Amino acid sequence: MAAEEDKQMALKDTMRTIFHSFAQHFSLWESAVQCLATLDVLMSLTTYSSLGDGEMCRPEIVSSPVPFLDVMNSRHPCISLTCGGDDFIPNDVIINGGRSPEGSLVVVVTGPNMGGKSTLMRQTGLLVILAQLGCYVPASSCALSPVDRVFTRIGASDKITSGESTFFVELSETATILHHATSHSLVLVDELGRGTATYDGTAIASAVLRELSVGVACRTLFSTHYHNLVDDLHGNLKISLGHMACMVEKEEEEEGEGEDGVQEDSVTFLYKFMEGACPKSYGFNAAKLAGLPPDVIRAARRKAREFEKSTERRRLFRKLVGLAPDFPLDQLLAIQTRLKQLHI
């Protein structure tokens, strides 16, 4: 026991001496750690730039009063291969490529479910951060004006410990963006408004989109499945439209359904970002891939057709009322009844 106590005392004195010596030269050790950390980061960036999978380019940071982003054949920095083992499909991301003070700074991104919208947005944010770190980026060319902050509203989750619902978290993060973003920020908003009723979500998404394009006027990628919102944006010079492309093939209608037969869409994802809007989200294709029972999907398709017909009838009725505002009320009601009887 005595030998063990002597050992512990000797070790205690030794450790005290080491710590005392370390404390006397703390600033020197701190500088050494900072230098090693900086060297580690620089070596990591150098390794990634020289050994990155595929084409890498040196980004060009342009001092410009007009915000813009121009990335050609860009790839996700963290994904070299897709889940299927194929090469990652490169995409061009251009925001105000003409570098015009009157150019569109907001790009509304549409496309099928699982078509790659969220991946494209995350990819863009990471590329901008890498570019401003001074690292080479996975693209054939990259030019941008400086970005002061990157804001994201991506994903959906609640905060059960603080009693905040998914929709409340969405709005809180959106409020932070609107309060703090500047004209030189990059904003990434993914499917805002999906946590509430369709009409409320569409209205909120529309108002936020207007504020980002006119009020804040910053570079923005804004993805949505609200196609009625997209329909209202055609011709808006402040907003451009893009979509993740897909190939759609019509399959034969189900037998025995008659006029109520539901034609299925066979969707092939192309993962290519192109100009224009996607007409549908093809949610039933995602339901099929997820393994929902066929009977459930068929019932959902029929209900979707009913909703689409009802929406189309209301749209036509509003258009007729606008064309003939002086029509008597009874004639307008008769037209509305006739529209309900039509198979549209």
Automatic annotation (TrEMBL):
Pfam families: MutS_V (PF00488)
Matching SMART domains: MUTSac (SM00534)
GO biological process: mismatch repair
UniProt xrefs under InterPro entries: DNA_mismatch_repair_MutS_C (IPR000432), MutS (IPR045076), P-loop_NTPase (IPR027417)
Residue ranges constituting the DNA mismatch repair proteins mutS family domain according to the UniProt record: 185-201
GO cellular component: MutSalpha complex
GO molecular function: ATP binding; ATP-dependent DNA damage sensor activity; mismatched DNA binding
Protein origin, superkingdom: Eukaryota
UniProt KW keywords: ATP-binding, DNA-binding, Nucleotide-binding
Family note: Belongs to the DNA mismatch repair MutS family.
Name assigned to this protein: DNA mismatch repair protein Msh6
